[in-house]
Specification:
The protein is an alpha/beta fold. 41% of the residues lie in helices and 12% in strands.
Length: 499
C-alpha cells in the first residue's frame, strides 16, 4: 500500500469510529431520564457540561478584566508572581483599580515623608511574656495555617525552606506536625485543631505526652488552638478520602483512604472559662506561648473572656488571638458557610482590637490577622487597623505556583500544590520554589515599608488608623479612626442601656 492509501484507510477508520461513538451516545442519551438536556438534545447536550467546566478557565484567561476575578484577580496574582520570581512589578500609565469603590482604602501620604535613613526595621513582637519560652516574631508577614494533607509534600517543603530563608514563621495548620514542616529549619507555630491531629489518642482525646514531644522540638515556638477558620466557621476541617495517604494517616492517627472530618468544636471547650482552662493546660504542658484562632461573628463573648481574665489574673490571658476573616480560606468548604458566615476581616479586626483596648488587654494579648492579605496595601491596612502580626496562606500558594485553578479539593491540582499525585507534583521543585517564597516575603516587606514611609511612619508597625481613609458612597473618604468611632461595638452595659 502506498502512503496515500494508508492515510485514506486511517481517515475512513477514524470517521467510522466517530460515527459509531456518536450513534451509541445518541442511544444512551435519548433513552436515559436523569438529565433532561441530554434526553431532549442527545449528544449535543453533552457539550453543556463541558462548557460549564471550561467556563472558569476561559473567563480567567480571555474574558475577565484585570480587576474582575474572585477570589483573587489577575492584577493581584501577577503582582505575587512577579515578586516571587524577583521581576520588576512596576506598572505604567496609571492605576487600573477603581478608587471610587465603597470600602477602597486610600493611604494618606504626608507632605514630608520619611527619608530612607530615617526609617527603621519593625521591632519584633513578643508573645508569651509569662511563659517559660517567650517567642519574638520579627517578620511582618508569615505563612498562615495550611496542613500537610491539604498541601502536597513538595509544597510544604518549599514553604518550610522558603520561610527559613526569609526569616518568617510557618503555621502547620490542623493536620499535625509533619517532618516536611521541620525540613527547612524555620520557626513553627503548631496548630491544634478540633480533631487534635498529631497529639491525640485513638479516641481523639488530647494526649499530653504527644503534645510535649511536639513542643520539645526546637523549631516549634508557639501553640495555636483552632476554634474556627474563615472558610468554614462552625464546621470542622475536611480532608477528602483521596488525600488520606498512608503517611498522612500515620501523622494524623486516622484510617487510611477514608475522609477525615474534624468536630465542629473542641469537646472540652464550651465557654470562655473552659477556653482559658484549656489554654492554661496546653501552656503548662508545653511551656510555650499559647493562643487561639477564631472568626468573629457574635462579639459579646470577647467581653466575657475579658471578664474571666480579670477574675483570674493577667497571666491567665491567651498570649495571642489569630483572627481569620470570613472571606473563605484555602480549605474546601460548603458554599453556604464560605459565602455567608463570619465577618470579613475589615469589620472584625478593628472590632476585636477595640474591645481589647477598651478592656486594657491590648498589650497583653497580641493579635495576628489573617484573611486575603496577599498584597502590600492589604497588609498595610491590617497594621493600620491594629494587627501586631499578619499571616497569609493563599499569597504563599501563589508564590510557589498556584494558578487559582479551583481544584484544591479534588486531588487534581495542576500545579502540584494541593495534590498527592506524583504525576502532578513533578513541576513543584522545593529547591526552585523556596527562593520564590523568600522573594515574595522580601518584596512584601519592602512595599509595605514604602507605604509606611510615604505616610510618615518609620515602619509598618507604626502605622495607625489615621494613616488610611476609606472610600464612602457619596464619593468622599473618611479616616479609618473616625469611621470606626461611628460604628464602635457597644460594650455590654451600653447594649443593655440601648435595649
Amino acid at each position: 500500500m502506498t502512503g496515500l492509501e494508508v492515510l485514506t484507510t486511517l481517515f475512513i477508520f477514524i470517521v467510522g469510529v466517530v460515527v459509531l461513538a456518536v450513534f451509541f451516545m445518541f442511544i444512551m442519551d435519548s433513552s436515559q431520564s436523569k438529565d433532561a438536556i441530554r434526553h431532549n438534545y442527545p449528544v449535543i447536550g453533552r457539550f453543556r457540561e463541558l462548557f460549564t467546566r471550561l467556563g472558569e478557565f476561559f473567563r480567567q484567561y480571555f474574558f475577565a478584566l484585570d480587576r474582575e476575578e474572585m477570589p483573587f484577580n489577575r492584577a493581584e496574582r501577577d503582582w505575587i508572581y512577579k515578586s516571587a520570581k524577583g521581576k520588576n512589578n512596576t506598572h505604567p500609565f496609571g492605576s487600573t483599580r477603581n478608587l471610587n469603590l465603597v470600602g477602597c482604602p486610600i493611604f494618606v501620604n504626608c507632605a514630608f515623608p520619611r527619608l530612607d535613613e530615617e526609617a527603621s526595621d519593625p521591632p519584633a513582637v513578643e508573645f508569651g511574656p509569662y511563659t517559660a519560652h517567650p517567642y519574638r516574631a520579627k517578620s511582618i508577614i508569615n505563612i498562615s495555617a495550611m496542613s500537610y494533607g491539604s498541601l502536597s509534600k513538595p509544597a510544604v517543603k518549599a514553604l518550610s525552606r522558603g520561610a527559613a530563608l526569609a526569616g518568617c514563621y510557618m503555621n502547620t495548620g490542623e493536620g499535625g506536625l509533619a517532618p516536611y514542616h521541620l525540613e527547612g529549619g524555620c520557626d513553627i507555630i503548631f496548630q491544634m485543631g478540633t480533631a487534635k491531629y498529631g497529639c491525640r489518642d485513638e479516641a481523639g482525646v488530647l494526649d499530653e505526652k504527644k503534645l510535649k514531644t511536639i513542643a520539645d522540638k526546637p523549631e516549634v515556638k508557639m501553640i495555636e488552638v483552632k476554634l474556627a477558620q474563615g472558610a468554614k466557621p462552625g464546621k470542622g476541617g475536611i480532608l477528602p478520602a483521596a488525600k488520606v495517604t498512608r503517611e498522612i494517616a500515620k501523622i494524623r492517627a486516622i484510617p487510611v483512604g477514608k475522609p477525615s472530618i474534624s468536630p465542629n468544636r473542641h469537646p472540652e471547650i464550651d465557654n470562655v472559662s473552659e477556653l482559658l482552662d484549656f489554654i492554661e493546660r496546653v501552656r503548662r504542658v508545653t511551656g510555650l506561648p499559647t493562643g487561639f484562632k477564631t472568626v468573629m461573628g457574635a462579639y459579646g463573648w470577647v467581653d466575657d473572656l475579658c471578664d474571666e481574665i480579670e477574675k483570674r489574673g493577667i497571666e491567665s490571658a491567651p498570649d495571642f488571638i489569630t483572627l481569620d476573616g470570613g472571606e473563605g480560606g484555602t480549605g474546601a468548604a460548603p458554599m453556604s458557610l464560605m459565602d455567608n458566615v463570619g465577618l470579613p476581616l475589615k469589620q472584625a479586626l478593628p472590632m476585636l482590637t477595640d474591645i481589647l483596648e477598651r478592656r486594657g488587654l491590648r498589650d497583653r494579648i497580641k493579635v495576628i490577622a489573617a484573611g486575603k492579605l496577599v498584597t502590600p496595601a492589604e497588609v498595610a491596612w491590617a497594621y493600620c487597623a491594629g494587627a501586631d502580626v499578619v499571616n497569609t496562606a493563599r499569597g504563599f500558594m501563589f508564590s510557589i505556583g498556584c494558578i487559582q485553578a479551583l481544584r484544591c479539593h479534588t486531588n487534581n491540582c495542576p500545579t502540584g500544590v494541593t495534590t498527592h499525585k506524583k504525576s502532578l507534583q513533578g513541576g513543584l521543585d522545593p529547591k526552585v520554589k523556596a527562593p520564590q517564597v523568600a522573594s515574595y516575603v522580601e518584596k512584601m516587606r519592602k512595599d509595605v515599608a514604602m507605604i509606611a514611609h510615604s505616610c510618615g511612619a518609620a515602619h509598618a508597625r507604626n502605622l495607625k488608623r489615621f494613616h488610611v481613609r476609606i472610600q464612602q458612597e457619596d464619593g468622599t473618604s473618611v479616616p479609618l479612626d473616625q469611621l470606626l468611632a461611628r460604628s464602635r461595638p457597644l460594650a455590654p452595659h451600653e447594649y443593655a442601656k440601648e435595649n
